[in-house]
Every structure is written in C-alpha cells, then in structure tokens.
Amino acid sequence: MNIKYIVELTDDERNRLVELTRGGKPGARKMRRAQILLLAAKGATDAEIARALSAGTSTVFRTRRRFVEGGLDHALNEAQRTGGMRKFSVNNVALLIATVCSSPPEGRARWTLDLLADEMVRLTEHESVSRSTVGRRLAENGLKPWQKRMWCIPRVTAEYVARMENLLDLYTEETPETPVVCFDETPVQLIGETRKPLPAKLGETAIYDYEYRRNGTANIFVFVDAHRSWRHVKVTRRRTNIDFAECMRDIVDLHYPHAPIIRVVMDNLSTHHAGSLYEAFPPAEARRVLRRLQFHFTPKHGSWLNMAEIEIGVLSSQCLARRIPDFEILVRETAAWLRLRKDSGARINWMFNVDHARKKLVKAYPDHETERLKRAA
161-196+209-355 adopts what CATH topology? Predict the structure, then answer.
C-alpha cells in the first residue's frame, strides 16, 4: 500500500510518546494521537491502527499528516479554535450581572437560567437567548444565583472584643506557665444501612442505597492543647451537665494531674458553667476540681476563636464523613483516628494575634470618638 505520510520518529520523540501513553493526565485525544504515531512508526497501516484503537481512519490520516507537515507538537496538540461570535456584548453582560444581583420576579424564590434568558430577551434587542449562553456568562463572572450561603454576622460589642483579645493573648503566649486547653463538642448521628452496600471494583464506583436507618445519636467531646501537639476525644451517649462535669474532672485528674491551674477555652453552651460540677459531684469534689480550672469563654458567635472547632473539622472530614451505625463502632473508629492524629505530631499553628485583630478588624472595634460625641451632645 502506498502511504503518503510516513511517520519516522527520533529516539527523543519516541520516548516522549511512550511517556505520554504510560500515565499522567495528557488528555484522551492527546494520548490517542501518541498511540497512533507509535503504531504508525512501526509500519502499521491506517486501517490496522483504526481497528486497534477503535478510531476512524480519517483521524489516523490527519494525525500522520500533521506530524509530517508540522512536527510532533503540531500532531499532538489541537489547533486554536476561533469559535463563534459572542451573542452578548459587554453592555449585555453588565445588564445580565445587574439582573442576577437584583430581586427575582414576584412569586419566585430565585433567578434561574430560564428566567434570566427570558429577562434578557425582554431587556435587549435579542429575539432569543439560550440558557447555555446565560450559564456561560454567569460562570465567567463567578455568579451562581441558585446558591445561597448562611452566615451569622455577630454584633461586635466591647464584650466581644474583650473576650476575643483575652483568647488571642492565651494563644500567643510563648512559654505558658499553665496549660491552655480548648474544649468543644459535636453531635453525631448513628446511621445504619437498610441494604448492604456494593464495594468498588475495577471500572465501577462503590454503591450504597440512599435510604438509611437512624440508630440514635451520640456526642463527641474534643480537647486540644493550644501550645503543644496533644488532643483527646471522648465519645458519650449524651451531652448533659454530668458529662461536661466529668470531662472537666478528666482534664484535672487524667490529662494534667500535675498542673496547678488549667485554663479551659470553651463556648457559652448552657452546660458550660461551674454549677454543672455541683450537679455531678458532692460539693467538696466539685470545689476541688474547680480550684484547678480557669474558664475562658469565646464571644457570642465567636466560635472561630476556639481551636477545638478546627480539630472537630479535621475529625469530621477524616473520620466521621460516612455512615457509622452504632455507638461501639463510633468509639472504635474515633480512637483509631486519635492514635493516627497523635502519631502524626500535628498541631494547630495559630497565627492571629491582638495586633492583627486591631489592624484587620479595626471597623469592628467600638468607636470611642463617636461615643464621646454622643455623650457630649
């Protein structure tokens, strides 16, 4: 057979093509072209290559031609495509953005692609606009009108600032004389399968039924030392005053038996108070534990200031992001995670201090000059 475009590879070109076909992420089309060139260099015909790679003979022919006429890079890479003319002008895109940022039509909870396409027909000279055109312009500008994020915006008062700076001072101590332990808890749903999941196998992902069985709840208490690589996880069936009190006694007697004072950082949950210890223990025992504890509370809506929140996020993503059916398995799995976490020597490197807060959150601090003028008036 008389072949017009003969593929002859140098050693460097052959090695490069072999590397492309062995792995990585060159792209399906690029890998296919590399395979075509390697087979063509061995003398295979277009029809033989097409059958071996399940490709069209025209694809094989074009790849040969591009290699002979333009070299290896020209054969492997696609030519730049001009594409069609954009339907929306700059002014049209600006109008679309303004529409997305406005309130949706009456009776609708949010803008959809179809609603926006209809609105652009009404507002511009276009006789028709497709939802894909609207979607591409929104993607280019990072707009997703169908999504909303919930966020709690705290009311920053002098009390908020005082608690924040108190905690930042604790975290940035270079040689703390007494330990600082961040403490928090998180609820966990115990979820069982209604049908046995199918494990992953070659070419197929794991499959599990969307239905599940709710087997109750549990609670996880998390302890984190602010200045060293130490943490502890305690799984309980409930989250009561008694459970909180027992955690505080654990800090004193089990985790820091030789520390005269332990400073504990926690949020304002209703169980987090000294009275819980008097509910759990006789007065003398409660007082013994409390004498060695010093509570430091985060501001309201200021949970970001509690390092234990960060540790709970790591625990959730690495261990809890699955269906755990019962309490015993939860205890076993969290204990295994804790061992790995401790062995890694990981610790939280807190970088934010009071000086940073006063610079970055200057608008959040109370305006003393404004207050002074109000009092003078």
Answer: Nucleotidyltransferase; domain 5 (3.30.420)
